[in-house]
Specification:
The protein is of the alpha/beta class and 468 residues long. The chain is built from eleven helices and 22 strands. An eight-stranded mixed beta sheet has the order 6-21-22-20-19-16-17-18, sandwiched between helices. Strands 9-8-7-10-11-12-13 form a seven-stranded mixed beta sheet, with helices on one face. A five-stranded mixed beta barrel has the order 1-2-3-5-4. α1 packs parallel to α11 (428-438). The longest helix has 19 residues, at 92-110.
Length: 468
């Protein structure tokens, strides 16, 4: 029988750091390391531990004794409850410092490379309402506040549409106003919820795997186009058409889509997306380029900063016009097309067929004839036959998902021996791990981060590698 954990209180302790997941770090006088939510470095706090982990404790915040000079008031009423924007209480300049600190730490301790001077992080101009894609969940048992529970109001509406409560896969925080996406995103979401409750539509129950309304996705572009996709757990044609007509008649939506998904998870990539009204894509513009973005497309979720990211990527590549470039993990081919006019030839590779089809369409629409795209698993496609087919790359641009590159891909990159590799990453820890595998063949000559996600701990990092 396990021993019951004994809670321990610590008073007036200083928050000395913040973790990669956004939790404050406290060190007690006895040397205990304690992680606490809702605090920022510089705060002096009273906390009470509730769980022991390997090497540290987790604690609840009881009181802020003395606030940090870097503490600010979060503008969002849902801060601390929903699972996003964990740094809204941290001054933006401080956010940048801690992101830069994390990158430096991981590159120093994990990459095995000598570091160049780290260039200043590229900050945002818009700290809020910057995302171009948001996904929400319907729930017939939303998360209730302690006041709502104490009031024991039997007529209380328990249906909700919003984000999952932090640490709870089956509870949804009902969102009234999100500060991440431009209007009319909030109006659309709130309108759907109000319509659904008024017309007694079933909200999803993830535990029982039953209901009608499952998820909502809203995408928008920098030119003001909006896409709305509702995922239904089951078909009810009359109710479905009525809801979609409500959206069509009350909001300016460029692309109104739906799908019926009765499987165990709500991922869309294996689902048939159906068009109800408008067209099945929205258009994003960047310089003189246009990109069709469909429901399954990967596109950077901060359009303004994506532009900055691509400009820095081009700057690092320093293309002269006669190079063959590989663009690994190309998504919808945005980077490929961004660099195409400065190269002899660019070849993009991506595992999602719909993304590659969109990349080909976008290249055609943009009158780009020197960009070529292949679909497939990177570790299977990127091989000797690929190199023989397209010619050896002078420059490689790689922008893998959060888990980084497969060791076989890294091995093939080293064997390729391109003069330059520009490695773009949304996870600098796995980036540093991959760099360690290349440290005998390449040196790092430039490094600069781009803040794509203010109010969160996430950051993109770009490094330039040159062959030794």
């Amino acid at each position: 029988m396990s021993r019951k954990f004994k809670k321990e209180r610590f008073d007036d302790v200083a928050v000395v750091d913040i973790t990669a997941k956004g939790k404050g770090v406290v060190k007690s006088k006895s040397g205990k390391v304690i992680f606490v939510n809702g605090v920022v470095p510089g705060d002096h706090v009273n906390v009470e531990t509730y769980k022991k982990r390997r090497g540290y404790f987790e604690a609840n915040l009881l009181e802020i004794v003395k606030p940090s000079a870097d503490r600010v008031t979060p503008p969002c009423e849902h801060f601390g409850v929903c699972g996003g924007c964990k740094w809204q209480n941290l001054d933006y300049e401080a956010q940048l410092r801690y992101k830069q600190k994390e990158i430096l730490h991981n590159l120093t301790h994990l990459s095995g490379m000598e570091l160049p001077e780290i260039e200043p992080i590229k900050s945002v101009t818009s700290q809020y309402f910057y995302r171009n894609k948001m996904e929400y969940s319907f729930s017939n048992q939303r998360w209730l506040t302690s006041d709502e529970i104490d009031n024991k109001n039997e007529s209380l509406e328990k249906k909700g549409l919003g984000f999952h409560k932090a640490g709870m896969w089956d509870k949804v925080v009902d969102i009234q106003k999100c500060h991440l996406q431009k209007e009319p995103a909030n109006d659309i979401r709130n309108g759907i919820r109000e319509y659904a409750i008024k017309n007694d539509l079933e909200f999803f129950n993830p535990r029982a795997q039953e209901g009608f309304l499952r998820t909502l996705m809203i995408r928008n572009s920098s030119i003001g186009e909006f896409m709305v996709l509702i995922q239904f757990f089951k078909e009810d044609e009359t109710k479905r058409i009525a809801l979609l007509n409500y959206l069509k008649e009350n909001f300016e939506i460029t692309s109104l889509l739906y799908c019926i998904n009765s499987k165990a998870n709500d991922t869309l990539y294996d689902q048939e997306i159906k068009l109800f009204d408008g067209r099945d894509y929205i258009i994003e513009k960047m310089e003189d380029l246009k990109f069709k973005v469909n429901a399954k497309s990967f596109f950077q979720t901060n359009s303004d900063q994506a532009f900055e990211l691509y400009k820095i990527t081009c700057e690092f590549a320093d293309l002269k016009g006669d190079e063959v470039v590989y663009d690994l993990y190309t998504g919808t081919g945005t980077i490929s097309q961004f660099v195409a006019k400065k190269t002899k030839k660019v070849v993009g590779v991506e595992s999602v067929p719909e993304a590659i089809e969109a990349a080909k369409e976008n290249a055609k629409e943009n009158n780009i004839d020197n960009a070529f795209f292949e679909v497939g698993d990177m570790k299977e496609v990127f091989n000797e036959a690929f190199i023989n087919r397209h010619g050896k790359a002078d420059v490689v641009i790689t922008d893998p998902p959060r888990n980084g590159m497969h060791p076989d891909v890294v091995k093939q990159l080293i064997g390729l021996g391109a003069g330059k590799i520009v490695y773009v990453s949304c996870n600098n820890a796995t980036q540093a791990r991959d760099l360690s595998l290349m440290s005998h063949a390449y040196k790092m000559t430039r490094c600069r981060a781009v803040d794509m996600f203010p109010q969160t701990q996430h950051v993109e990092n770009i490094v330039l590698l040159e062959k030794i």
